[in-house]
Write a structure and sequence with these properties.
Elements lengths: L9 H10 L4 E4 L6 E4 L2 E4 L8 H9 L4 H10 L1 E8 L3 E10 L2 E9 L6 H4 L3 H8 L15 H10 L1
Antiparallel strand pairs: 1-2, 1-6, 2-3, 4-5, 5-6
Length: about 150
């Protein structure tokens, strides 16, 4: 079976993800690009299944030389990218079953105020403290980064 040439870019996939209000984009060999919507994985059926060479080419296209070297040394690298007019994404590149794969988490431009997040008033009191340790914990996608951004912005 002949390998299809990739006819899409990260910008296009990011646009689709944002239109669907996805929190994540997943790029893995053996599947078309996928997005996470309301906690569920959704295959982007309008796009072809990606082969290992496709995922490497696609993912390497968003990495600079330093990031590529770090990935090749450690088989994992984290960084962020900005896509003009669309937003920022936190990127984790890793190896899955010997192939290059990536998970991109959407980072909103605007920081939501604590009231909009439904944080209790004592959180504001914590933000006013000049010393101490605050731990924000929870599973992936539970809002840790969003909460911390709101606290810092306060």
């Amino acid at each position: 079976m002949e390998q299809e040439k990739l006819s899409f870019t990260i910008d296009e996939i990011a646009k689709v993800a944002i239109e669907r209000d996805a929190t994540d984009i997943h790029i893995t060999a053996g599947a078309p690009p996928t997005v996470r919507v309301d906690g569920k994985i959704v295959y982007l059926a309008d796009y072809p299944v990606m082969y290992p060479k496709d995922t490497q080419k696609f993912i390497y296209s968003i990495m600079n030389e330093k990031q590529k070297r770090a990935f090749e040394e450690k088989n994992e690298v984290d960084f962020s990218i900005g896509i003009k007019g669309l937003g920022r994404f936190r990127v984790n590149v890793y190896r899955q079953r010997g192939s290059v794969a990536a998970a991109l988490r959407r980072i909103p431009y605007e920081i939501k105020p604590m009231e909009e997040l439904g944080l209790i008033p004592s959180v504001k009191e914590l933000c006013r403290k000049s010393m101490g340790l605050v731990l924000v914990t929870g599973p992936t996608g539970s809002g840790k980064t969003t909460t911390l951004a709101s606290m810092i912005d306060y």
